[in-house]
Amino acid sequence: MVALSADFEEMAAFLPTVQVAIENFAAAAGALTELKLGAVSPAQRQASLVRVAHDMLPPANGLSSSGAELEQRVLRADARLRAVAEELRSIDVSAAQESLNSLKLGFAGVAELAPMVQQMGQLVQMLRIAALTNVTMRRSLQPAITGIKSLSNAIDTVRSWNQI
Length: 164
Known about the structure:
By secondary structure, the chain is an all-alpha fold. It is built from 6 helices and no strands.
């Protein structure tokens, strides 16, 4: 139980890092929406896409690493939570459910990321259109896509705790 509580505390402390990574990527990707790509020559369009892609890469990498780290933390907590749940149920079902509910309340923060992650997913879908014509943009987007998938997996895992 102590290790599980520590896992929850670590995840809660890490959530602001994830939020900053999401915000940084959104800000960098927002530069693409400000471009007037239809009003420029194809060469200027490509140059603008390359510049924005280079600017997006560090935040995309940050999103990827923070998403992967949160996913790993959630999976570690998930394994411990399920083990504790089984142990508690073998002792006293009603007390177990009460203890589990109080533990799960402490981790609602990850599920609260869901709207931000969904918006990032929509943003990435829009950026993929721009990436169709630019290899540099595709390469810059890939880490963000990986990070968003990791965050979505973490959120899905936390949501599955409602069934425990």
